[in-house]
């Protein structure tokens, strides 16, 4: 029996894109891993947990509302997606990150009760929060009032601080992962560390970039190593969204969003909401600094500052406004690219669209000056691990759906690479002439590895390449 979820619980959609507010269609979700249950109001069992309904679905798996028959309480069960459960590395990291997150005990962090790796697929059991996500609140109300902004922001910072003290970085702080309990709207942060669990094993065969970059830090978008200050940038983006009712960085596709995260300054908050006080704008601006060293050093300091401002707003006659923040250094001019902007130009988001074909497949070759479909096809017996990797180049760049269409047309599919070592290897390939060949018929240069856009000389005098997608990719 299928039970259609109400989507009223805050765990719904916590693993999906924050802009995605559609109800879950449980009839389209495979629950073949469930054991039969003799109760008519249950859709199955998973060990000692009687499954009541599906309340969320995302790239990592599905979330179920369940009843714990041993401890007699309602819980949320997150089940690893079947395609990830089949990958030993994914399972290992999923369990490892869940165990780390379980060590964080705090009022503003969702408690993990148990992790079960005896079943396939494996799953974790969390406390069930009745309420809504912060994303749902913003979608319904738009820009929030000052007191809720400060209260929610303070509690998020306190939850992050507790995790950071345990050495745990969230990596996916966004409104959809901020749960608000019914009645009191107490913050509960969910999915701590789980975004990392499948980073190195995701393969996107549909050509779509998974996840959302709207709240991602520049260093994370550029594929660099991150620390707790990456979470603080994400919190700054959340505060911006609460103040304005919209994300700080918006664009038509994921790649464009990630480029804006790396390069652009968001529209001034007071242009969108003149009621936001200058001191809050200063706090958010500091959190959204491109360079981590220019942000707050830790979440404890931020939580204390937001808490003192909240106390002032609640009782202005009794609590003085905290000392103003020091003015940050002047922004680097757009005519002088920052190190991260240059890295975007050379590596973009440390990512690429590549077309993976079986050995003996077809290489699609062309000049960057020649638009599709005027490219020449020819076969080449070179490639690693039984795959072909095809360069996709157009003068104005290639949209993801177009790259996917081309890949399907020649019998391939788009994949992504996540390993930093493989990313560096790919960069070396671009600089090594032995990996480039000429067609015996046309003399066109062909590279068997990376989908890229050759930059205009005016932007990058020494040449260079810009990757196409906004997601790191898996070389398999």
Task: Describe the protein in words.
Mean pLDDT is 69; it is low at 1-9, 12-23, 198-211, 327-338, 341-399 and 415-476. The chain has 14 helices and 18 strands. Helix content is 30%, strand content 16%. Helix 4 packs antiparallel against helix 7, helix 4 (146-165) packs antiparallel against helix 11 (299-314) and helix 7 packs antiparallel against helix 10 (278-287). The chain has helices at 82-85, 88-102, 134-141, 146-165, 194-197, 218-221, 228-244, 254-263, 269-272, 278-287, 299-314, 339-347, 400-409, 420-430, and strands at 44-46, 49-57, 61-68, 73-80, 112-116, 123-127, 131-133, 178-181, 187-189, 354-358, 362-365, 376-379, 387-390, 413-415, 437-438, 445-446, 452-454, 465-467. The chain has three domains: 26-127, Phosphorylase Kinase, domain 1, CATH 3.30.200; 132-197 and 211-318, Transferase(Phosphotransferase) domain 1 (Transferase(Phosphotransferase), domain 1, Orthogonal Bundle), CATH 1.10.510.10; 347-467, no CATH class. It is of the alpha+beta class and 476 residues long.
Keyphrases for this structure?
Phosphorylase Kinase, domain 1, 3 domains, disordered C terminus, 476 residues, alpha+beta
Assign the structural class, choosing from mainly alpha, mainly beta, alpha/beta, alpha+beta, or little secondary structure: alpha+beta
Number of strands: 18
Task: Tally the helices.
Answer: 14
Write the CATH architecture name of the largest domain.
Orthogonal Bundle
Query: How much helix is in the residues?
Result: 25-40%
CATH class category label of the largest domain: Mainly Alpha
Mean pLDDT: 69
Note the gap between the termini: 39 Å
Shape estimate: globular
What does the largest sheet look like? 6 strands, antiparallel
> Biggest sheet: strands side by side, in what order?
1-2-3-4-6-5
CATH names the topology of the largest domain as Transferase(Phosphotransferase), domain 1
- Stretches with pLDDT under 50, minimum 5 residues: 1-9, 12-23, 198-211, 327-338, 341-399, 415-476
Rounded to an integer in angstroms, the radius of gyration calculated over CA atoms is 24 Å
- The percent range for strand residues is 15-25%
Summed up, the domain count is 3
User: CATH homologous superfamily of the largest domain?
Assistant: Transferase(Phosphotransferase) domain 1
């Amino acid at each position: 029996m299928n039970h259609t979820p109400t989507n009223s619980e805050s765990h719904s959609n916590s693993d999906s894109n924050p802009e995605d507010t559609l109800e879950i269609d449980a009839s389209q979700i495979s629950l073949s891993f469930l054991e039969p249950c003799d109760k008519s109001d249950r859709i199955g069992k998973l060990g000692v947990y009687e499954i009541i309904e599906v309340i969320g679905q995302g790239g990592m798996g599905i979330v179920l509302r369940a009843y714990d028959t041993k401890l007699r309480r309602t819980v949320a069960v997150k089940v690893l997606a079947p395609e990830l459960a089949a990958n030993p590395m994914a399972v290992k990291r999923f369990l490892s990150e869940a165990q780390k997150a379980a060590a964080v005990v705090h009022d503003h962090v969702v408690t993990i009760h148990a992790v079960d790796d005896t079943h396939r697929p494996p799953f974790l059991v969390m406390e069930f929060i009745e309420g809504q996500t912060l994303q749902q609140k913003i979608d319904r109300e738009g820009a929030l009032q000052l007191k809720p902004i400060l209260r929610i922001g303070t509690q998020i910072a306190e939850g992050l601080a507790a995790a950071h003290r345990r050495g745990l970085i969230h990596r996916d702080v966004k409104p959809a992962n901020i749960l608000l309990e019914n009645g009191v709207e107490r913050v509960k942060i969910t999915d701590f560390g789980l975004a990392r669990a499948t980073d190195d094993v995701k393969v996107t065969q549909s050509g779509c970039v998974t996840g959302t970059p709207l709240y991602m830090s520049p260093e994370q978008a550029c594929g660099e190593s991150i620390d707790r200050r990456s979470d603080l940038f994400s919190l700054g983006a959340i505060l911006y969204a609460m103040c304005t009712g919209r994300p700080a960085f918006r664009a038509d596709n994921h790649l464009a969003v990630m480029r804006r995260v790396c390069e652009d300054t968001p529209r001034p908050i007071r242009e969108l909401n003149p009621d936001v006080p200058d001191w809050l704008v200063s706090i958010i601006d500091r959190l959204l600094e491109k360079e981590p060293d220019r942000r707050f050093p830790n979440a404890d300091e931020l939580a204390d500052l937001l808490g003192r401002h909240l106390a002032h707003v609640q009782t202005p006659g009794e609590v003085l406004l905290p000392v103003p923040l020091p003015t940050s250094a002047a922004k680097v001019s757009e005519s002088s690219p920052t190190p991260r902007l240059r890295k975007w130009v050379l590596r973009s988001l440390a990512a690429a669209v590549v077309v993976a074909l079986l050995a003996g497949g077809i290489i699609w070759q062309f000049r960057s000056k020649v638009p599709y479909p005027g490219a020449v096809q020819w076969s080449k017996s070179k490639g690693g691990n039984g795959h072909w990797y095809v360069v996709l180049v157009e003068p104005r760049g290639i949209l993801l759906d177009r790259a996917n269409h081309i890949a399907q047309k020649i019998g391939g599919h788009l994949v992504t690479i996540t390993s930093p070592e493989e990313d560096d290897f790919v960069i070396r390939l671009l600089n090594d002439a032995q990996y480039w060949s000429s067609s015996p018929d046309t003399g066109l240069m062909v590279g068997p590895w990376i989908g890229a856009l050759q930059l205009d000389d005016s932007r990058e005098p020494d040449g260079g390449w810009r990757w196409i997608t906004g997601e790191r990719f898996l070389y398999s």
